[in-house]
Fold MYND-type domain-containing protein.
Amino acid sequence: MNHIGRRVFLLVTTLLSKLDTRKLSKSSELHRLKRKHRCYDSLSHYISEDPRSIAQTTCSWYKVWGTSLAPAALANYLLLYIASIEPAVASIDPELPVLILQRIIEILRISYDKKYLENTMHAEILEFMAILIAVSADYLVSYATIKSILGLQAQKIDSLLCTIFDFSARKELAWDSSGCLRTTLLPSLGEVSKALRRLFGQALKLGSPNAFAREFPIPGHITDLPWVCVLGRMSYLRNSNQCANVVCRNKPGPQSRPSRCLKCTVASYCFRDCQSAPWTHHAFPHKRFCKVWSLVAPVWPRSIEALDETRAAYESEKGLCKDKENGSSSWIDDNLYLKRLADEVGGEKAMLELRKILEGVDVALKRIHS
């Protein structure tokens, strides 16, 4: 059953990534999709008209069979179908956030013992973040919906969050080379923790937030952006030595050493034909993101260690003072540094596109200082 579930949810995830959600209300677009994707004829009702079915089915398969691709399908749906997010979130099983947090703890423990985050686990955490933000963000869904999902499990969820935050107190974070813990996981979960206290803290007597949760004052508008997943995928591809063409990568037999794309230096290809073949990962195809990656690559570090080194050199050169009392900078400080660095890369037209990616940082700062 788990194998069947994986195939079904892989199909749904692939289909979701190929749809233009802005045109789904047009009958011509629906007919075009049904001609192009035969499976859409049977799935169109559930995707465009009944979002409750997607949420209920993914929750059931994950609870009963532990199908790993079920949360991936749900996360893609929540990210792409913002107009249908209220009924979809309202249909999520209240046990799903607990199961997700328990899985994150399991991933972190495994990763900590092995001293690195596996690529599949990194992607899994990013998908979990989209779901957790959706069920706790009061600017996306109503209070009644959040209460129905998190209300009964709030104390258990808070306990699991505290366990996860304890990982940030550990100094040996060499395994977190992609920066998933610091730049994605903790800031996102910090928002979930604050939402719990804002909505249920007084009634359930949850107490003050965890010390590490207070270190990440990030409004949810940043953490729920699809760019978080895009940058995570970029980090994975840049650390991979495999051909980014899925067809080529799955062929048996030895392959030549892949060469990086000269434009973005992110994706790698084995042969000349691979780069013009159907392009790579269904959700983050190279053809779609190469231009963006070519802009981000010079200023987005390959690891948190590289970010710390380059930022220290920048601060020393510019005579900036670092807050020694608070230690390392927060996620917002890191992105501010990247924005300052991006301004010096050059090319006004290119910088306009890059600023679109980082515009959430500006919104966050205005809200924090207002």
